[in-house]
Amino acid sequence: MARTKKIESTPVRIRFKELENGNKSIYLDIYYEKKRRYEFLKLYLIPENSSEARKQNKHTMKAADAIRAQRILEISNNRTPVTISEKAKVLLVDWVNEYKNRSIQQGKTSSENHVHSALKQLRKYNAKARLCDVDKDFLDGFVEFMKGQKARRTKVPFAKKTISNYLGVIITALNMAVDDDVLSVNPGLAIDRKAICGEETPREYLTIDEVRKLIEADAPRADVKIAFLFSCFCGLRLSDVRALQWKKIIEDNGNIHMELRQKKTGRMLYLPLNKQAQAYLPHTKRSAEDYVFSLPCTSTIDLQLKKWAQNAGINKKLTYHMSRHTFATMELTMGADLYTTSQLLGHADVETTQVYAKIIDAKKEAAVLLIDSLF
């Protein structure tokens, strides 16, 4: 008679509680030292009525599995911190600073200021916390702490997106700790950053008619006008426009394209320039090492854009990044597919570009409803 295989027991199991709204609340059933307790994770599965819902549930279960793994390891180690090496006793602020230094070495210099700001908040919250002290409760507390903070210059509370971004810096640094075998699991996987941000903020963009108005209107500073319109027709971020050198603009058989490493992502971008974008390149080409555009500081740019928009009779709050949104919506409006547009924007995946497709769908729906006004 074949021996029955013994099923390995686990002290921590994932269970679900049906809610009245159709969602399922995820909780842990923990049995340890002949005592049972339950830990509700404040994570929820939603009805899988769409691919987006299935994707969200997959992310949620991944977070729940990460917490379960951490609880098992805590029990097996007699509730000592879950660590692989003595390096985990380093201060969290020092580890995040190490993450910043590595990012700079990899050429991701655009994240330096971002990490610096996150570090400032982390020091205020708990400068003495060790890497091995970090768990979901610590990160939840960090989020709550930042909700009570205000921006130094404007004195207004942090935006939800800012809080999510600062938390993202810490979570990414924790990922590095897992990759380096310093931590076994990343407790940040248990945090739903989308829930922190709330509903997605609509992307502000200019219509083709509004771009025409800006072209015709006088701007207080010609350099800002030229650079902004250049970005409207190629989608380049301000950080990349500032870093653009003539050697990165290549002419081949009458066609012009750019080859550059994006400041924000560190990814290479190969971008053909249409005739409209070419028209806003400075006419006097200098040496290969020279920068194409010379722009003032961001606060000055914002002020000039505001005055220029007023001259053009545009009521929207004009920001430089709006030029990138404008390029994306123009491409999709003119029939470019989502994948091609994502490549032109330098996005790592199409999902990032999907938000612009939603804008176009809304425009199509509004256009169809115009027929109702005829009858």
UniProtKB/TrEMBL annotation:
Pfam families: Arm-DNA-bind_5 (PF17293), Phage_int_SAM_5 (PF13102), Phage_integrase (PF00589). GO terms for molecular function: DNA binding. CDD domains: INTN1_C_like. One of its GO terms (biological process) is DNA recombination. InterPro entries: Arm-DNA-bind_5, DNA_brk_join_enz, Integrase-like_cat_sf, Integrase_catalytic, Integrase_recombinase_N, SAM-like_dom, Tyrosine_recombinase_XerCD. Keywords: DNA recombination, DNA-binding. Residues 201-370 form the Tyr recombinase domain. Belongs to the 'phage' integrase family. This is Tyr recombinase domain-containing protein. It comes from Bacteroides caccae CL03T12C61. The lineage of its organism: Bacteria, Pseudomonadati, Bacteroidota, Bacteroidia, Bacteroidales.
